[in-house]
Amino acid sequence: MGSAIGAQYVFTTEEDRIAYSDHYSADETSHQPLGAVAPATVEEVQAIIRIANEHKVPLWTISRGKNFGYGGSAPVVKGSIVLDLSRMKKIEVDAENGTVLVEPGVSFFDLFDFIQEHKLPLWLSVPGNSWGSVAGNALDRGVGYTTYGDHAARICGLEVVLPDGDLVRTGMGAMSGSPNWQLYKPGYGPSWDTMFCQSNFGVVTKLGLWLMPEPESVLGFDIDVDKPEDLGWLIDTLAPLRRQGIIQQSPSIGNWLRAAATLTLRDEWVEPGKPLTESVITAIRKKFNIGWWGVAVRWYGPLEINEATSRVVEKAFAGKPVMAMRPTRWVKGDAPEGSPATGVPVTYPLANANWFGGRGGHVSYSPVLPVNGALALDQYRRTSALYAEYGMDYHPSFAIGERHMTNVNQLLFNRDDPDMMKRVDSFMRALVKDATAKRYAEYRTHIDYMDLIADTFDFNNHALRRLNERVKDALDPNGILSPGKSGIWPANRREKRS
Amino acid sequence: MTLFQARNARLALFAAAAMLGLSACGGAGTGNAPSPAGGKQQANAGANAMQDRSYKSDAEKLFVEKCAMCHRDFGMGTVVLARRVEKGQEWLEKRTDLQADFVKTAARAGIGNMPRITRSDVSDAQLDAIAAYLEKAGRK
């Protein structure tokens, strides 16, 4: 590998191996790689792929490896070599058309700095941890908070190294020199972009993405409600507005702990190991003036349209028992608003890992539900009961899409509490079992649970798995690319499935 | 609320829009509105809260590229360190006690909630430059 990309970009010391492990894990050795290689060009990626095929060595592709809560930079298969694309940092913006072509090493901060430096009238959609890769986040179906928040849906054209080293461009990029690569998604014949999302069918080396033209204004409301039961009517009030496109971003309703976990430390309120009682929750909420649930809703565009939207949304909430409903307003020419609502990258939400004061972490449990208040309330009741049963602090959110709802729950834990760490795995499995009984599946999961979640897709005796594996075997006969990703195993490793 | 808590409450307001989605903290809100949107329209409480991404030297530029997202204002590292160190010392660039070797060890080994920084993300030479910058930055 050293001769292919330079010895200084082959990382095989013990320190390197530890650096690429899952730093949120109770047992970091369980997914420790053998080392990492960090190519800077597509030709170097191809050279690495050829060597991996010769030696039948499994690679694990990461863009920047900041996918905390889902495994970070660590592979499913211990002893894999991490194919780290973080040195690939090219950015090509088409300002007129509002598109960008990024390499996988480009972080949200990198792209933000580039846009600021060139004074381009374009806004990002950023996730809660913007340290990560723009391309990697979109490929893993990450989300943001503007109308461009469904990142995978804004992908337009990929460049991919296939497992045999062949290089393809999808969509209009399949025509060399096409000016339409980042403009028209389908291309001609079958469309392949989504095939490379959450998969192990290729190494994406360039990703086209649409960016939001800077709007004239952003208006909205910050809404708090006082009681857990208010979740039902809150969702049923927002759902029609979202379905009709009056609200075009995905409002994410979070509970009090979602805010509190970044604001304060648990130990300031209750003895370690003791549950959070209603009186403790009330005291925390009172101190920081937060609802039991809270949600930020925003609309983007010309001021006159946005002001009309505000009136429509206000009317929809007329007579509803809100705790607080605060109008928000940013108009072009105002000082920068400075939050993810206007596409400004952040990392402070990661501070929730410090909830227990010591070395913290989390894994996410994220089932998809229909958008329905009664179903959400039922989900809240069942899930919070399981959190209580396992002695964990309930940290949910419900993000409302056009037709679905993603219920992201953080399992916050303290890595310095061995008893708690022992409970995490059985708790996660209990949550998945509970969702599966309702026929809800997760949209994304940690490397420990990729087989568990793949197993829940059981129609016709797991026909989807058979399809995925037939594709895997056709493209990657030596099984070198990210074995086990999303529960997809190559023929030579299928016995590894857990 | 102390000044420190008020500042944190302001951060949670951003958290609102981020993965935290919650809004509403601190004195910027209109309080408990009797009816929906009962308060008057206002600028967002987070206005003008952008992180300073400027730099004056190559070493500072590297710090901004590689570290500032967590270690300037509104960064995860700054928020968490504010709970542990003397007031004002949560900003690494204002620290008066940082040794270059400590910076390098913290980056490579991780510390507290900070993950380990790989050599692909920040090369040894880059880390040397950043560590030297931080050792001096707060002592000017």
UniProtKB/TrEMBL annotation, chain B:
Region (Disordered): 30-52
InterPro entries listed in its UniProt record: Cyt_c-like_dom, Cyt_c-like_dom_sf
Keyword line: Heme, Iron, Metal-binding, Signal
Signal peptide: 1-24
UniProt entry tagged with the keyword Hydrolase: no
Superkingdom of origin organism: Bacteria
Biased composition range(s): Low complexity: 37-49
Domain Cytochrome c, first and last residues per copy: 54-138
A matching Pfam family: Cytochrome_CBB3
GO molecular function, one term: metal ion binding
Protein name from the UniProt record: Cytochrome c5
